[in-house]
Amino acid sequence: MHKPSEPFIAVENIYTHRQRYVLLVASLLGLAGLMVVGLAQYLTAFLAAGILFVVFRPWWVALVHKRRWNRRLVTILLLLVTVVVLVIPFYALSSLLLDRLIQFAQNPEQILEVVHKVERAIGFKIAEQFNVRQVLLQGGAKVSGWLPTLASSALNFLVIVGLMLFTMYYMFMQETYFLLGLHRYLPFRNETLKELGESLKNNVNANVLGQVVVALVQSILTGLTLWIFGVPDALFWGVVAFFMAFLPVLGTPLVWGPAALYQFSQGHNGQAIGILLVGFVVIINVDNLLRIVLAKRMGDIHPLVTLVGLVLGVEIFGLIGLVVGPLLVSYFLVLMEVFRRENRATNKAAAGEV
């Protein structure tokens, strides 16, 4: 025989409806915070997957939604493009940069020799040997912090790349559910979500596609200029110029300026003047022209937003912060505008009731 179940005893809950609601939101935020902390070292993988989803989505829409290609086939093709065009070249360039910085930091004699020649040319001492070595070590550590996946073990790098590709695969394969989930769970109206989406698209276009094009062109021009005018390791300094080109205002002058100074220190005044002429007349003007053209075509982002975002993003997220930083600043500005608009609407409604 079944034992009769004990009668349910109703117990009065000590929380009000509003308190339960607040505690529910706090619990969700707390759990989300724990998840973010637990996945902190792999956060770049998910951020990169989201950025690449935005970059490749026009191709996805054209091939899957318009031409009716197989969804899985297109997804695999996009993943292969990511590995061949982005992951492998980025790993090779970054490894070259890190290896050379470590080599300079461990054996700074070449740089010290140039510094001493410049000191003799200008007539006063610039830096002690200890200071130069410290600057090189600090620079290597800083760049290693920006590229944590390359500075750590190969296994960690593979895990991050694997997570990024795995996340991209499901974002594309379950595109409809992913986009509906954003609309359902993000606490914004459709108009605000549209503004945030437009801001994301503009930032990705301007700070990924546009910046990569500008950096690549400047890198090639800088490398060719240094090679033509006889600067040693022109290929390496061209790679450095690619990364420096992401910095607004300063950029590649941080590369070809010291290269001209090096040629002056070696007594090659004509070559040094040639580097400066090409730098000021060609490289800087090409940079400005490309940025103006690409800003209009790929997303009109204010330079101040980019500058503040770069400083913020790189410090927090590493190299991926080149995109995430400006995006955070843009989102802050968009949400401030939404807040202003909502307050104005509320005030008008209150004035109408009165």
Automatic annotation (TrEMBL):
A Pfam family per the record: AI-2E_transport
Subcellular localization, as worded in the UniProt entry: Membrane
UniProt xrefs under InterPro entries: AI-2E-like
Domain of life: Bacteria
Topology in membrane: Multi-pass membrane protein
Keywords recorded for this protein, A-Z: Membrane, Transmembrane, Transmembrane helix
Transmembrane region(s): 21-40, 76-98, 154-172, 208-229, 235-261, 273-294, 306-334
PANTHER family listed in its UniProt record: TRANSMEMBRANE PROTEIN, TRANSMEMBRANE PROTEIN 245
UniProt family annotation: Belongs to the autoinducer-2 exporter (AI-2E) (TC 2.A.86) family.
Protein name: AI-2E family transporter
Record organism: Hymenobacter armeniacus
